[in-house]
Structure formats: structure tokens, C-alpha cells
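Example record

One chain of 424 residues, shown exactly as stored in the release files.
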Amino acid sequence: MKFDRLFQQEFKIVENKKKVFIVPAIILVVALIFGIVYHFVFGSAFNLGMDYTGGYKIQITLGNKLTDETYDDYKNLTVGIAENLKDDEGNLYGIKISSVQRQGEADTAGLLLKYKAVGSDELMEEVNDKLQDALADSVFFFKPEIEVTAGSTSFTATYDGIILAGDYDVQLRNKLADEGYDVVSATTNTEKTAITVTLASAMNADQVEKLESLMTISDNYGGMVVDGGQTSSTVSGEILKSTLLAVSIALLCMLVYIIIRFEILSGISAVVALAHDLLIMLCAMLVFRIEINATFIAAVITILGYSINNTIIIFDRVRENLKLYSGKRMNGKLIKPAFIANKSVQETVWRSINTTFTTLITISMVAIIGVPDIRVFALPIIFGLLAGTYSSVFIAPTLWAMLMKAFPGKIKTPKAKGAKESAK
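Predicted C-alpha cells for this chain:
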């Protein structure tokens, strides 16, 4: 009941305009501070994806080995190989994987790695070649399950998905002998899926630890690593220009629509509120260091459409209240635009909160349990929903009331019902 009475009280949003505008101002200042720090620490305020900075791609075809169960293992393995790649002197190249995408199905299933350049074109040729070789050497193999303990004189290695055909037992004996193991026998089982090795002497802890890598078999036909191409900085620049153009056109179209449906001051207020939503989304992406890529633009357009819908609901009520209260007095004073704005918000705020809350629950679940690629899309939506609700409820109507006060003759206020008849 107390919660219901909250929405029955008289709102004073316009009268508290300083508090209304100080909230986004604080967010902008905080983001500016973080941006300066990030610029010196990371070299860029925003965490721009390779869609905007340019970069490289490598495609790894894994075929039927890539399943829902093995995806995380292969993803972690390939990312680890790339980000720990070193030059001939043992120095890290500094590769950072921007994204890992799962592609294809069955025989064509694979991973697409995307990463930014870490140096000149000449250096990147070296890096790409080494990365392809490292991935091919480390990803395509059969690793056995080995039953062994220190002090044992024998062990059994069992393989999954491979037949130990031919003279593998002879090859294995030679391989182990080269590493200092005194092999007495190496015998495969009937199904050719496991091999038991007997040694002349007990193994020490170091020999046991080396067994897994020694018994790993290369899968020469298990897939391939190919160069996926490069996204140049020129192409990235064109994408950025297209992005800015798309957002600008969207804002312009919305301004025209609001002017046609309502009037120019409502249109200006609505577009300023939308610009606020965009700025707050960018601030959140900056502060939390979330990668900005092509999906972010989809999130921006989504929020612009969602936010303008909330704003239109309020301005619809503003138009009705203008007709209802135009020229009327309250306590001997002419009713001002601030009263109309406050009342319009009061009559629609519960609807705005309800719709935002239900949408927020759904998108939050997507952000929590979704895959990383979906999470990058969901997080800006969450920030945008909160910013859009704030701007629709507080900023747009407050700004409209301020403009109505500053330009009282700009809008011809609609006459209240019955005003024309009583004047006769």
C-alpha cells in the first residue's frame, strides 16, 4: 500500500532539474577519469574490437571432434596457445584473442580466432606463421589415459578414437629408448586401442611426468589450420563511418517523427534524451572495459527504439494534459508546463517501470547464462535499458518543460475542450 501511495503523490521532477541532470553529469565525469587512465595503461580509452581497429583471423577445422562437450576445452586450449606464443628469444608476442567463434557442423565444424595486430605487417607475417604452426602441433593429437605410478615398471596407455595399427609398438619402443626408458616389451591389446609397456627398471617421478607427452600421438588428418585473412584499418574506418551514419540517420528520423506526431520542442527533448542514452551506454562500456564490436551497434539501435517508445508514451500524455489544463488556473495561478510534465510522468511512470523491469529480467538472464558472444550484446542492452528509462521519465519531460518556459510563443497550445463553446 505504501508503494501504491508513492505514485499517488505529486511529482516534483521539473522543480528538481538540478538533481535530474547531475546524475548523468557524474557518470560522464567518472567515465572521463577512467578513459584517461585507460588511455595511458592500455593505449586506448575504449576496448575497441577488431571490427573497428583491424586485425587477423585464423580458422581451425576440427570436424566431429568439436562437440558441445569439447568446445570449452578446445577454446581454452587455442586461446592459451595464441596468448602464450613467444618469439625465438622467449619473449611473448602479446597476442590477445578478441573473440572465438564456433562455425560449421559435423565434418566442417571448427573455431575462428580473431585477434588484433601486435606490430608491423612484417612482424605479423612472422606471428601468423608461428601461430598456425603452434596450433597445428598442439591441437591435432590423441592424448591417452595412462595408468601409472612412480616406482612402477609398467604402464598402460589407452586411446579414444584411434586404432594403433601397423608397427606403432616398434616406433614407440624406439621413441621411449631415445628418452632413456629401458623398454622390455610393448604390446597392444586385441582391439588396438591400448598399449602396455614393460620396462626393465622402475620409473622415477620425472619419467612418469613425461609419459603423457611422449605417448601423445599426432593426428595428422584430424583437421587443419588456415589463415582466415585480415581486416585492414581502412575497412575498419569505413565500418566506423557507417556506424556513425546509421546512428545519426536513426536520430534524425526519430526527430522528424516526433515533430510530425507532436511538435518541435517534444522532438528536441526526445532526441536529447536519446543522445543521453547513447552517451551512458558508451560510458558503461568504457568503465567496465567491455569490447565494442559490430554487435554493440545492434544494441544501440535496439535501445534507441526502446527508449523512444517510452518517451512517446509520456509525450502522448503530455499532449492530452495540455488539452485538459490549457488556460486553467490552480490556486489562482495559471498552470505551467512544469505541472503538466510532472503530472504526465506520474500517470505513466508505473507503466515505464513495469515494462523496463520485465525486459531487464529477460536480458539479465541472457547475460548471466549466455555464451560470451551473446553476453557482449546483452550487457550494453542492460545499461541502455536503465539509461533509457531514466531519460524517458526524468530528462525528456524536464527538458520539454524548460523549453516551453523559454519559448512560450513557439507552440500554439491546444485549446481545452469546451473552451470554444464558452467563448461564444
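Notes: The two ends are 47 Å apart (CA to CA).
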